[in-house]
Amino acid sequence: MALTIGVPRETEPGETRVALVPDVADRLLATVDDLDIRVEEGAGQGAYHTDADYDAAGCLVVGRDATFDADIIAKVAPPSDDEVDRLGEGQVLVGFLSPLERPETAQALADRGVTALAMELVPRISRAQKLDALSAMSSIGGYRAAIGAAERLPAFFPLLTTAAGTVRPARVLVLGAGVAGLQAIATAKRLGAKVFGYDIREPTREEVESLGASFVELEVDIEADQDESGYAEQVEKEKQERQPELLQPHLAEADVVISTALIPGQPAPLLINEEAVAAMDPGSVIVDLAAPNGGNCALTETGEEIVAHNVQILGPTNLPAEMPVHASELYAKTVAAMIEEGLEADAFAPDFDDEIFAESCLTRDGTVQNDRVRGLLGTAEEAKA
């Protein structure tokens, strides 16, 4: 009996990506014997892939019911309540599942006997790099943030010499030197801005400087009356607590600030207070990539673009969806890698003792597998009681 993969049309507002693109589907069909890929009508439309493209790749273009009647369901966004209700015992769901933000969805999937593999839980190990969808999407987000900031800034990014005089380059400050932050730094640098990068983790200095940016170091004065280890810990604690205050003069000098400091499942750390926003020049731009978790800026409104103290503050929640062609292509490759990793004799039978599946597995055998999600569910039950 053929292994079947279903690719539904995404229904979450603003989601334009698709979980498998025709080229990746074609490669999977060539690699795996006795495989059927069912793609819902119109699933690739937002990413500029037609039903005819999928048909030419060897996929079956079907209705929604037939799409969900598959062994493996490949999605981008977490499933809606309706989509959860369509899933059942023994099916496998692969996608971004927002387990720490939506633990109740994990419980619903477990109750229906679904094996759910969360792409954001894939471990950060070298063997799993090809499955790292989170990094791929973060890279797109960082790029898009820099492009969006350049579009909205009422001034040039690069140094420009004209007959009327010379225009100085824009000053761009990127907060957070993870994947998104580093991509934002690289993109702003390519656009000709003078770029500065900050991260509380000192080892990131080398990565920031390797991209041609200047590393912002926050000086903290602490009484040196303890051993070296204790001193370092105290400096770190003091720096964390005083970040908004210490960053304020650097923020005031920036034309653009791109903030990317985000901790999954936790409120985003406050880095930009209202006083810092008020100190920025009129027309300056803040792009807050931490908006889904409340934002690094005190004035950020999730999913909105506002103006406060004559500063433009953007709180995007899904920048990769603004680049659906490449976002879908990269995401599809990670999903295909996840499926291929779990194949055994052309059947999907992952080894849940393997680190990749042990960590990415959100639900299995009727239970929530992830400890942090179980803890969140327990906290929710206690609150109800």
From TrEMBL:
Keyword Translocase part of the UniProt annotation: yes
Annotated Alanine dehydrogenase/pyridine nucleotide transhydrogenase N-terminal domain residues: 6-141
Alanine dehydrogenase/pyridine nucleotide transhydrogenase NAD(H)-binding domain segment(s): 150-315
Single annotated GO MF: oxidoreductase activity
SUPFAM superfamilies noted in UniProt: Formate/glycerate dehydrogenase catalytic domain-like (SSF52283), NAD(P)-binding Rossmann-fold domains (SSF51735)
InterPro entries: Ala_DH/PNT_CS2, AlaDH/PNT_N, AlaDH/PNT_NAD(H)-bd, NAD(P)-bd_dom_sf
Entry's EC annotation: 7.1.1.1
Membrane-spanning ranges: none
PROSITE patterns with a match to the protein in the record: ALADH_PNT_2 (PS00837)
Catalysed reactions, as listed in the record: NAD(+) + NADPH + H(+)(in) = NADH + NADP(+) + H(+)(out)
GO cellular component, one term: plasma membrane
Gene Ontology terms: biological process: NADPH regeneration
Domain of life, source organism: Bacteria
Top enzyme class: translocase
Keywords: NAD, NADP, Nucleotide-binding, Oxidoreductase, Translocase
Family the UniProt entry places it in: Belongs to the AlaDH/PNT family.
NCBIfam families linked to this entry: PRK09424.1
PANTHER family to which the protein is assigned, alphabetical: NAD(P) TRANSHYDROGENASE (PTHR10160), PROTON-TRANSLOCATING NAD(P)(+) TRANSHYDROGENASE (PTHR10160:SF19)
Function field: The transhydrogenation between NADH and NADP is coupled to respiration and ATP hydrolysis and functions as a proton pump across the membrane.
Name assigned to this protein: proton-translocating NAD(P)(+) transhydrogenase
Protein's organism: Salinibacter ruber
